[in-house]
Specification:
- The structure is a homodimer of 299-residue chains.
- The first copy, chain A, is 44% helix and 15% strand.
- Chain A contains twelve helices and eight strands.
- In chain A, strands 1-8-7-6-5-4-3-2 form an eight-stranded parallel β-sheet.
- The longest helix of chain A is centred in the middle third of the chain and has 15 residues.
- Chain A is globular.
- Chains A and B meet through helix 8, helix 9, helix 10 and helix 12 of A and helix 8, helix 9, helix 10 and helix 12 of B.
Chain lengths: 299, 299
């Protein structure tokens, strides 16, 4: 049975790469196992990037080797370049993700190239894959840039179109710094959907200012059916204690359940997966649903 | 100029009454001063309830005496009975708030009377006021009850109608335990608005499961223009560390600003008011916007 809403779990990659504590591959694989058991079917398990720059993602090949496969669960690996694709293929990833920024300043400062150059790097990735694995694209800073502030909607739409032309089956429009509010969420989602089709759009909200669920709600109203989320709200900023990062998958699932929209995810099992990884990180969960559940157990 | 959205600030009452630390009246008055300076024009400053049961609200008369008045700012006091009204009148409250529960079980356990009895207690309050002060009503547990679970929408609508008939200019429909999701928020808001008029409906969401902003967004779409919120997310449950209570006013204002909806509230001044009270409570703010702001200042 097809779920009403597709959740792409990004905690093991986008979440853990921003945590101050680096978890060994064995723990990350055990987290992936729990996420699969909870019903998640699209999981970003790691990335093949510079281990020097992102030590939290070292050993992603071991995560892919150790995590148990389920026939319908796809393990996604983020890759920045051709070398990353080779590693992803060798490690048995089911899908790769690529990224580009809607902001020139962010692109230059974060990945040290222009937006055009980042797209040019993407061409050999697609050529090397030659249709063997599906490719998912990210448009980062789509709702605002830490350096430029506002980002032109036209730039977001153009980049999403380019990523689809280059072979992405879906493009995740990301609020990297968590500044979006629902009206903008709906406007951006609608504009991108008009350009590439709503079935190719995913939305990726960071909950830095608590707006993520409201933005997802607005996105659903705009006809979007695919959302990224991070178990336990993994992520945040290591330099800002208490600052939250990705929206917590538990909170998204709770909202969707309440709205009668199916995800195929078992909420108690998901909460348990979040407790598992939070324990290993030695920090409290950022999921409010998980906290409310824990409080109820104590009271 | 009329604001697009009316915010009723409930932090000094609904928020502080649920905090583990009891603040002296002088600090509470200083908080109210800061909220007025930030542009809030409807502030629940305290309640005249049993000091034995709710020690956090002792000295509400002193708060009303000490807080600086602004000609267009209304100081609201919650009153449970005729004695409370006498105290509110003597202390110079601008408005009183009364409450009833949509759930019989909650009514019996929380205020030790049936819903009908709680309405009956309300009649002498209105008679005593005789139109001198506006009266605001609360329907608590309107979205779910900790004892009964689901609450009948018909019961919520009927209670809201009764409160208006008895003289309330506005009825705040409250998700006391923070279980609502956006579809329910819209359904309940629309049903109550159909019965008493959208301009008499306010919505009051606790953010226990992170759903409050999404619910407010849904409420706006249902035509509601009045929302309760609590600076710094004051409230929460003293028995559950980390569990959040009321939605943070800062996060609501950030969302509304982003949606182009005016509130008349100055966000930086509001964040400063939240930092002031959080400091006195010796705990971190629950506002994610305030946290993000603090993180940005450090980074």
């Amino acid at each position: 049975m097809q779920a009403d809403i597709r959740i792409v779990e990004v905690g093991p990659r986008d979440g853990l790469q921003a945590e101050a504590v680096t978890l060994p591959a064995s723990v990350r694989a055990a987290l992936v196992d729990r996420l699969v058991a909870a019903g998640l079917r699209a999981i970003e398990v790691g990335s093949f990037v510079s281990e020097r720059h992102v030590p939290q993602m070292a050993g992603t090949a071991e995560v892919l080797a150790a995590a148990r496969r389920a026939p319908d669960a796809r393990f996604i690996a983020l890759v920045p370049n051709l070398r990353g694709v080779e590693a992803a293929l060798a490690a048995g990833a089911d899908e790769v993700a690529v990224f580009a920024s809607a902001s020139e300043s962010f692109s230059r400062r974060n990945i040290n190239c222009t937006v055009a150059e980042s797209l040019a790097r993407f061409a050999p990735i697609v050529a090397r894959l030659d249709g063997r694995l599906p490719v998912r694209g990210y448009v980062s800073c789509a709702f605002g840039c830490p350096y430029e502030g506002d980002v032109a909607l036209a730039a977001v739409v153009r980049l999403a179109e380019r990523l689809v032309e280059m072979g992405c089956y879906e493009v995740s429009i990301a609020d990297t710094i968590g500044v979006a509010t629902p009206r903008q969420a709906r406007e951006v989602a609608a504009a991108v959907a008009a350009a590439i089709g709503a079935d190719r759009v995913a939305l990726h909200f960071h909950d830095t200012r608590g707006q993520a669920l409201a933005n997802i709600h607005a996105g659903i109203e705009a006809g979007i059916r695919s959302f990224d989320a991070s178990v336990a709200g993994l992520g945040g900023c290591p330099f800002a204690p208490g600052a939250t990062g990705n929206v917590a998958t538990e909170d998204v699932v709770y909202m969707l359940n309440g709205m009668g929209l199916s995800t195929g995810i078992d909420l108690p099992a998901l909460i348990a997966a979040g407790a598992f990884v939070s324990g290993h990180l030695g920090k409290g969960t950022q999921s409010r649903v998980a906290r409310a559940q824990a409080a109820r157990s104590v009271a």
